[in-house]
Write a structure and sequence with these properties.
about 15% strand, Aspartate Aminotransferase, domain 2, four-stranded antiparallel beta sheet, Aspartate Aminotransferase, domain 1, Arc Repressor Mutant, subunit A, binds pyridoxal-5'-phosphate, globular, alpha/beta, nine-stranded mixed beta sheet, about 40% helix
């Protein structure tokens, strides 16, 4: 354990043992440094890591205070293990909600992307300008599938820092993670096949399944611990499943991370049933604490696991650069890409490579994680302050989503329509499901600074919920 991790562990134990009360100020950086004999930098790192885990909060003038304890709500399991849908018909709701989020002057709690002001815009633009100036005439061919070689090597080295051995030859650069996910699904299924998703799931998976004429098995999923492995096994036993499209870290929309043991169980079950895993892992850089969570691809069954990710949530969304670590499907995916979009944009691949080789991505990520943790915590506090007591506000570590369960008789789509009239946008639960099970839920993007305007947005939502409860 490094020195800052030792200090963190000792303060964490002190908080758990009640040495420090909620709201109490920890020793200042200087005082802690002289008490522990550690450098100011080491103490700062420990305090910041505790902050990103939600154990302490920093206040501009008071230093670091012990954060209130977050008690997860009780969660009722539904009786059904899974829900089967043979004919997917995702209505216009998803499209309408996404289009509406483009209106100017909205308080955009419904967006799936982080506050764009958190992207290092000047450095990204510089990389793009330099890449464009020095781009050779052969750029398009040089960056054909599987994509820019240097970029694939950089991505492969990032896997290596997690102890994973992913050859650059296995990686295909795509136009955002979404293209990768779609290509993966297409490469291992035929129309009419069964595919497993979470319930609720990222709406992109519902749309892709519909587009490819696939059938969905939506598995019972817990908002804090993720997909129910027993329910998953029940579905594998009863259906001839071809693939699973799952999010194992900071799931959209609920925010959970699948516990490590469940990732291992998932890998071993899918190996037993010889089912492909399409692992949608676009939020993995936005972890709290000090370690990136491992994907399921790190365990057995790696060759039949396609790990999809991108820079959209952690660096810049508009470049549309993502990738698939595609295992045995690498060649098939390249062929499909050549038949559809041909290749990810060459200037964008070059600009991304330029950014990653000339700028410290890690420094940016550290700052981003810290800011997101602070903002999510601030937003959670305000939600608790203003929402009625019978609303479940589900806080999970990492990422920037907060999942909210209203009393069951309140329809979150109605809340969405009412809130829009006040310029507040949310993502209603119906977008993420093939059933009506989540109609009383919504997802809130907590990546924005909790300004007066955002607090007003939360107050508006809370007062609308109270009005709807009275009816
Ligand atoms: C779970 C999930 N997967 C994939 C994507 C798409 O990522 P990209 O913008 O890299 O295509 C998103 C974007 O919202 C997402 O939330």
């Amino acid at each position: 354990m490094s020195k800052y991790e030792q200090l963190m562990a000792s303060i964490r134990n002190q908080i758990n043992d009640g040495v420090w009360d909620v709201g109490e100020k920890l020793p200042s950086l200087r005082k802690q440094s002289s008490l522990s004999g550690l450098s100011l930098m080491t103490v700062l790192n420990a305090y910041q890591a505790l902050e990103s885990q939600g154990l302490v909060v920093s206040h501009p003038r008071s230093g670091y205070l012990v954060a209130p304890k977050i008690t997860p709500p009780e969660y009722k399991k539904t009786k059904a293990n899974y829900h089967a849908t043979e004919h997917i018909n995702s209505n216009d709701l998803i499209f309408d909600v996404l289009q509406t989020s483009r209106q100017p002057d909205l308080i955009n709690f419904g967006s799936a992307y982080p506050d764009p002001s958190l992207y290092p815009r000047a450095q990204i633009n510089r990389s793009l300008a330099t890449a464009a100036k020095s781009m050779p005439t052969s750029a398009m061919l040089d960056n054909f599938p599987p994509g820019n070689e240097e970029l694939r090597q950089i991505i492969s080295k990032r896997y290596a820092t997690q102890g994973m051995s992913i050859s650059p030859d296995e990686i295909v650069i795509t136009s955002g993670a979404l293209e990768g996910l779609n290509l993966c699904l297409q490469s291992v299924t035929q129309p009419g096949d069964w595919v497993i998703v979470e319930s609720p799931t990222f709406y992109g998976s519902i749309q892709s399944l519909q587009k490819l004429g696939l059938k969905a098995l939506a598995i019972r999923t817990h908002p804090l611990t993720g997909i129910d492995i027993d329910a998953l096994e029940a579905a594998l036993k009863t259906h001839d499943v071809k693939a699973c499209w799952l999010m194992t870290n900071y799931q959209n929309p609920m925010g959970f991370t699948l516990p490590l043991d469940n990732k291992k169980k998932l890998a071993s079950l899918l190996k037993q049933y010889q089912v492909y895993l399409i692992e949608d892992d676009v939020y993995n850089e936005l972890f709290s604490g000090n370690k990136k969570p491992l994907p399921t691809k790190a365990f057995e069954h790696s060759d039949m696991t396609m790990h999809c990710s991108s820079f959209s949530k952690s660096l810049v969304a508009g470049f549309r650069i993502g990738w698939v670590a595609a295992g045995s499907q690498a060649k098939a995916i390249q062929k499909l890409q050549l038949m559809t979009t041909m290749a990810a944009s060459a200037p964008m691949q070059l600009a991304m490579t330029r950014f990653l080789t000339t700028t410290s991505y890690e420094t940016h990520l550290r700052q981003l994680r810290r800011t997101l943790a602070q903002r999510k915590y601030a937003m959670w506090k305000r939600l608790n302050q203003y929402m009625p007591d019978d609303v479940n506000i589900i806080f999970s570590e990492g990422g920037y989503f907060i999942w909210i369960e209203l009393p069951e008789h309140i329809n979150a789509y109605d809340l969405y329509l009412k809130a829009l009239k006040h310029n507040v946008h949310i993502a209603p639960g119906a977008m993420f499901s093939l059933t009506e099970q989540f109609n009383h839920c919504f997802r809130l993007n907590a990546s924005f600074e909790c300004t007066d305007q955002h607090v007003d947005g939360i107050k508006t939502l809370a007062s609308l919920v109270k009005q709807m409860e009275r009816k």
